[in-house]
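dude i think i finally got it to work??
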Amino acid sequence: MQLINVKKLRSIKFITSLYNLLFKPLKSEKGDYDYLRWNGLIDLMWRTGGSSTRAFLTKKFLSSSPHYLYPKNKFYFLPGEYEDLLSRLRVSRAAIANNVLAKVIKPDDEVLEFGCGHGLIVGAVGHFCKRAIGIDVSQAIIRVAEELNRDIKNVSYVRSSGLDLKVIPDQSLTFVYSIECIQHIEKVHAVTFFHEFYRILKPNGRALIQFPDLTRSEELDAWMEGTWKVQSERPYSELTMMRIRYYTPDEIKILLTRIGFSDVVFLDYDLNPVEHSSIYFLATR
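look at this
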């Protein structure tokens, strides 16, 4: 009886795995976004490559939207161009942390940022809270966040399925926030995450949630006059993720109150130095 050719089987398995990695969404990726199919490949490159590979991937992500490996992203930077980009991002994200979050987060708070992306906001938050966690649907961007914030010891990063926050235990944190993230999620999914925020917070824990406000003239004008034109030129896979979902203050207050939050308080529009026409709600469990 002929023995099985082990090397041949391994080669077939490797080719099959590579095909699935490149052309099919990974089975472990439960979020319904096309870009997730790249996470396994990028994570493999991150783990097997050296510091130059990690630096290349970090630059690649920060050259455009932080989750995507689009062909239009830059492969080459002029001298100092990437450093300037990263510096500007650090300044703008630190401004959000200091101008918004530092006013409502306490030194003994245990914090979660939902949709942390490259982690520059939660990295800054780590300087004025007990500990912080950044969570995101993309394993690839989690790697970038770890790289950019490797010197901040009280901040960690985890990946969610994109459908829930089951990786976070019940009533384990005292503060959760989301900035410039929920607006890209379908409303039915956003409500699911509001329930999850309530679940993971301890009694009297607080949630800070930000949205673009449809009742503000700037946002309404952008939506009515420009956004639909841009979106009509995008492929559906990109449109589904990046399309902005607008809310009104009354809508948010109704949803959060129905879930069980109390003391749902509207905060000043001008808190965010990046998005001046945003809704901010601070809700207590």
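Residues 25-36, 65-73 have pLDDT under 50 and may be disordered.
im so relieved honestly
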